[in-house]
Amino acid sequence: MKKLINIIIAGVCLLPTMWSCAGFLEETNPNAMTTSIFGSTPEELNMGLTAVYSTFKEKNLLAIVQESNRDDMTIIGVAKALPTNNEYYYKTFNSATSIVSDKWSRLYKGIFRANQVIENYYKLYPEELELDLAGEEVIIEDENDTHRFIIAQARFFRGLFHFYLHSSFNNGSVIIFDFIPENETDFYQYLQDESVVREFFLKEFEFAKANLPVEWIGADQGRVTSGAAAALIGKSYLYSGEYDKAAEYLKDVIDNYGYTLTENINDNFSEYGEFNSESILEISYSNTFNQEFNGGDDAQTANDLPQAYSFIGGFGGHQPSLWLTMAYKDDPMDPTDNRNYYEDESGIMVLRPYSLRASYSIALVDDIVPYYQTYPFEQNQPFRNQRTSYFRKHTRWETHTSEIENGLIRSGLNVRVIRLADVYLMYAEAMIKGGKDDAGIAEALKFINKVRYRSALELIGPSASSEYASSQHNEVTYNAQSLMEHLMYIERPLELSIEGHAIRTIDLRRWGITKQRFEELSTREYHVGTFTGVDASGKTINKWGSVLFNGASDNNAVNKNEFGISAVNYVNSLHDYWPLPNAETISNPNFN
């Protein structure tokens, strides 16, 4: 899907002088494309699908930056002088906040475009409409006739966008649009109960699961699949606390679609690893097309997340929170695993300072892995003014010396929305039923340790019952509650930080711990110290306040903490979900 299809509809009217005015008004312009004509062939339906995929890539639909500011993943600006105007970090957003209406409008725009494809599809294949409404199987006699995939993709996205609305707005009570509005009154729909919305999008996902292929090849690589639909069903059941159903679908994804963890965790964040064996749902970006559009335009095909996260060519203003930085630094490695060693200048094998997962997720000043082709401390501007870490996710540190190209911050790096590691960890949670069932501990440990082993981390639980018995384990005996706490505060945030659709925001909310999380984090204290390094030329470089430590210090070090104002401002009824957009509540009389 890297190739963008641009459809230009131009009406060209040539009016010979012998035509009468009345005759002209009665003629149908053969060159004008209308909604009643467009979509009358499979090729045109696929063009309509391109518009749906295009909506999926618009940055304010996932709103990754704003969502990560809402949760406990990021700290804004410089820790010694935090800005006071970030509504998401300080939890002062309301129904008039711009992202509220932006996210809402983009999701319904995607639904509208999907509905256009669906309506035109059933005009073209009317014999299938009654069968689909009845839930009966449609038999395609010619296996080479792939037109059925068109309706499956459109309904997948109609379900996905309703799912995102349900998990983002108004406690899940939103409008269902399963038709194309024909007049102004049609837009004024009633809010539906969250259970009705959930029933609707689950039906769409089930349809997509039954009718989409397991994989696409060639130029179609990147289109949605039946495995993605199954993963979304499992995720939805987990979000609603239906653990048995969640486990059923998540295990189906694990066993029956050919997904495998990548050998290197960085394959999930790099350009080299796009559409890899672990990727289940991925947004494709390219900085090759539509370069005339600026970074904030929805028509651009590039990914502009490096603006927020990159420290070379970006603003770097959305940094890992202090607790997250320390959690990455303290994530224990397995010293018996050769992957945790590197060869120093004298040819001696030395243990890495930080785990592979930490190094590929965030940038630390004293890490030994080069960033943007030099070591972190050799960069001129980063790691100053108490900036102690940066996100490496959503940046192209391997292939670029800066995120700026031709004066603009454009990236072709794809965004992974769902990957297998997320499914493994959701399945582990489902097996212990959210911390209430000890019977599933062995199965949960199995899949948590698969994720940890991939990054050469110390494994958890007893080694005697592990499939990686020779690896170092912490030998802790877990019950369901303590294992759930590990998932909540270590495994899911460290593995999946700033990924997907609001993963951390929704996790904290569904576990019922958002406010108490901010309150607890606000009591933690940290201090910073100076890092001294020697660059390739032998020059000594000092980075003041660039190294973060736990606890307060009495040795003239700078002490700091975070989330104090967030803890005070957060009100569950106001901030668990995005509110309904102010413009929508004013214009829609049926909202009251």
TrEMBL record:
Family listed: Belongs to the SusD family.
Boundaries of every RagB/SusD domain copy: 258-590
Subcellular location: Cell outer membrane
Primary localization class, coarse: membrane
Xref: Gene3D superfamilies: 1.25.40.390
Residue ranges constituting the SusD-like N-terminal domain according to the UniProt record: 24-238
Name of the protein in question: RagB/SusD family nutrient uptake outer membrane protein
Range of residues in the leader sequence: 1-22
Signal is among the record's keywords: yes
Cellular component terms per the entry's GO annotation: cell outer membrane
Record keyword Cell wall biogenesis/degradation present: no
